[in-house]
Amino acid sequence: MQIHKSSKLVSEINVTPMVDVMLVLLIIFMVSAPMMKEGMNVDLPEVEARALPSATEDLVITINKEKVLDINGSPVDLSRLELILSQIKEQRGVENVYLQADKQVAYGFVAEVMAIIRSTGLTKLGLVTQPLVNK
Predict the structure, then answer these.
(1) What is the reported pTM?
(2) Among 61, 50, 129, which Cα is nearest to 94's?
(3) Cα 75 to Cα 55: distance, rounded to the nearest angstrom
(4) pLDDT in tens, 35-59
(5) N or C terminus of the chain with fewer C-beta within 10 Å?
């Protein structure tokens, strides 16, 4: 007596374990994402960072402690900043803008200047700081 089985190989991939793992990971990330908040030091003007290489012309906007603005050394009125930046972007094709502000300037004023800069379409905005002094 000979038993003959017809065994057939299953060539399908079982995705159920992979879906289970992905759902567990999704739940873990959804629960832990709101808890990932970092505090930051408010005294920002002194940081350690290396200079960024630049192949194009960049703008440096400076705000002194009297809230006087200048672009690359030329004084500018806040009410005309958006118009001037739009013209510079159009004529020179500038992409990067660096904003340096005195540490005594109110955060709200710096945020207002940043909003004006971004409204002109200049989205590559960097903040200039002084190197960290070891005490």
Answers:
(1) 0.54
(2) 61
(3) 25
(4) 665 543 344 555 566 655 545 567 8
(5) N
